[in-house]
Amino acid sequence: MQIDAVDQRIIALLVADARASYADIGTRVSLSAPAVKRRVDRLRAAGVIRGFTAIVDPASVGWTTEAFVELFCAGRTTPAQIGAAVRRHPEVVGAYTVSGEADALVHLRAADIAHLEEALERLRAETFVTSSRSTIVLSRLAESPGVGPSTG
């Protein structure tokens, strides 16, 4: 699917505010509301836009402790095996295969250090995990909910 500059602006505006009306977006990209709706429908049908979601502040629900955990796995552990395992842990925010020594990088979020330790122990108990290395997040410096440059 070809995505032009207008599609990119629409996507960026929806990432910034998924509740923006088609009319508001149209004003920003010089299109009518029906034209914006047609483009959004096309982007959804093509799978470019996979859904709309609420972004919840983790502190407001009490999950303020975060860590990044490098996982080192046994032998021929596949990305699919790692993915299936990490999806069983509600504290996992994201998981990625990576280059370098580790096989995967897992982002965890928990209520406090005790909860984080418990989540780490459960993650490390997965049969394929041979070792891990954790880094605790002290503060967030930047975060973006979507892709591409901001719409400023």
TrEMBL record:
InterPro entries assigned to the protein according to its UniProt record, in alphabetical order: AsnC-type_HTH_dom, Dimeric_a/b-barrel, Tscrpt_reg_AsnC-like, Tscrpt_reg_AsnC/Lrp_C, WH-like_DNA-bd_sf, WH_DNA-bd_sf
Entry-linked SMART domains: HTH_ASNC
Limits of the HTH asnC-type domain: 3-64
Source superkingdom: Bacteria
Coiled coil: none
Record has Transcription regulation as a keyword: yes
Keywords tagged on the record: DNA-binding, Transcription, Transcription regulation
Pfam name, any one: HTH_AsnC-type
Protein name: AsnC family transcriptional regulator
Lineage: Bacteria, Bacillati, Actinomycetota, Actinomycetes, Micromonosporales
